[in-house]
Amino acid sequence: MDKVEIQAPYNVTTEGWHDWRWQMRKRITKLDDLRDWIHVSQEEASAIKQLADVYRWSITPYYASLMDQEDPSCPIRLQAVPSLGETVLSANADIDPVGDRHYRKTNRVVHKYPDRIIFLTTTTCPVYCRHCTRKFHTTDLSSESYFERGEAVPWEEDIAYIKNHPEIRDVLLTGGDPLVYSDQRLDRLLSQLRAIDHVEIIRIGSRFPVLLPQRITPELCKILSSHHPIWLNTHFNHPKEITEESAAACDRLLRAGVPVGNQTVLLKGINNTPEIMRRLMLGLVKIRVRPYYIYHCDNVVGVSHFMTSIDEGRAIYERLQGFITGFAVPEYVLTTELGKIPVPREYVRRGEAEGTWTYENYKGEQGLYQE
Ligand SMILES: *Cc1c(COP(=O)(O)O)cnc(C)c1O
Ligand code: SF4
């Protein structure tokens, strides 16, 4: 049978395309609808069927428009379309390998480091990334999640916890995606947090700039800027995601005084080559987004097929460090029960004679430093 040429049902000239609520309503959640966008491979179709009762999936029309129609190994497809890899239970995989449930203090507060907490807002995201490290929280249909009492319960108890812990000076709103909230609801939450004297900074972890940049409206930016200092970290994983729209969304945030950082996950088949990582990091600094972390992919149930080895991660990282603009190189970390651990090898080692150190630069050239 000849392949039918695909005419995606919507594009940038469609009425509603620039309205984030329209994008949320028109999310693709059915195999037949996905066929309007791409030639779905047999493997993808079978994964969608097999995982129908296991994991959520949904794709915004905007993110779908970035997918390659023919190539199942397209980095956007790999992040958004279910795959059979998710059905494989790999050795040592865990739903919560970094033990965040252990540190959960209230329905929404995870308190692992002394001075900062994560505040879970929701289980909803515009696109359910197949590699989500909180897959059991955001995507698992067995409804197991960090929320002990659901996401509908009011946040009084969580705010009270923060009030009662003066050591908390940094609150990181995460989820799910906090920008799923309406402007009004977000404004209310930010106001309540701002009313606590010891909360110095508020951070938002959101993938909207990548998955649905239309969410970053002037109205939202105005609300954010009325609660400063607000910082935002987003999650670009591949240079293909740096589009005119996503760049414009980051620009709006930056002009509202919100510093925008990026957290990338090292993912097999998506960005595990030095060339792609380099293009990604350089592309980010071109749109004034500061690379913050590269996360080593955790052995999360349903995500293991994206893992690389630490040796591979280091080899990629060592092709960035020193070779490109210093601030285009994020920290490469492993997330563990004990916190985030820097993975790079040591560049400075104690020398044989007292007060001496041997060092190695990015090209492997060695030298001796004397104190
Ligand atoms: C990552 C993380 C933070 C924030 O850590 P930073 O290194 O300051 O970005 C806070 N709490 C938890 C539980 C985390 O996993
Ligand atoms: S947007 Fe973030 S929290 Fe939501 S599914 Fe993707 S990685 Fe997970």
Q: Structural class of the secondary elements? A: alpha/beta
Can you list the strand order of the major beta sheet?
A: 1-2-3-4-5-6-7-8-9
How far from one another are the termini?
A: 74 Å
Helix content: 25-40%
Helix-strand blueprint:
Blueprint: H1 20-25, H2 31-34, H3 42-50, H4 61-64, H5 75-80, E1 109-113, E2 116-120, H6 135-138, H7 156-163, E3 170-174, H8 183-194, E4 201-205, H9 208-211, H10 218-225, E5 230-234, H11 244-255, E6 260-266, H12 274-286, E7 290-296, H13 310-317, E8 331-336, E9 339-342, E10 348-350, E11 356-360, E12 366-370
Parallel strand pairs: 2-3, 3-4, 4-5, 5-6, 6-7, 7-8
Antiparallel strand pairs: 1-2, 8-9, 10-11, 11-12
Helix pairs in contact: 8-10
